[in-house]
Write a structure and sequence with these properties.
disordered C terminus; two-stranded antiparallel sheet; elongated; alpha+beta; Alpha-Beta Plaits; four-stranded antiparallel beta sheet
């Protein structure tokens, strides 16, 4: 039997054969870091998928996109103090959103790559 809490004080239980239970590694979430990136919201546009982020977050997310082989460019002048990351539409919208959510999860678990100054090459396109 597995007993779990699905909300404060709301306990549930279920029974499964032992071979169907999978061990998961617990990774604590830094709630400050989780809240820190909540402002980053994806936007679906005709030309490209887009999001705006502060430079440190944009750099860390750009590094993550590079590691995933995603084509994108950056516009550092789109909104004062933020960088617009434009993801090529060859990446499906659902994939883009899933990548952003996965990066946010890793960031909150402090597994995201440390940010570096500057976004990189001339226009960041890969």
């Amino acid at each position: 039997m597995v007993r779990y809490e699905s909300g404060r004080g709301n306990w549930n239980s279920t029974e499964l054969p032992a071979e169907e239970i999978e061990d998961l590694e617990y990774r604590p979430v830094d709630l400050r870091r989780k809240r820190e990136v909540e402002y980053i919201i994806p936007v679906q546009a005709l030309e490209a998928h887009s999001l705006f982020a502060k430079p440190d977050h944009a750099q860390a997310f750009a590094n993550y996109l590079h590691s995933q082989g995603v084509r994108f460019s950056e516009d550092p002048d789109a909104i004062q103090g933020q960088i617009n990351i434009l993801v090529n539409r060859s990446t499906p919208w659902d994939t883009f959103v899933a990548l952003l959510n996965e990066w946010k999860r890793q960031y909150a678990e402090e597994l995201a790559e440390p940010s570096m100054h500057g976004i990189g090459g001339s226009n960041g396109e890969s």
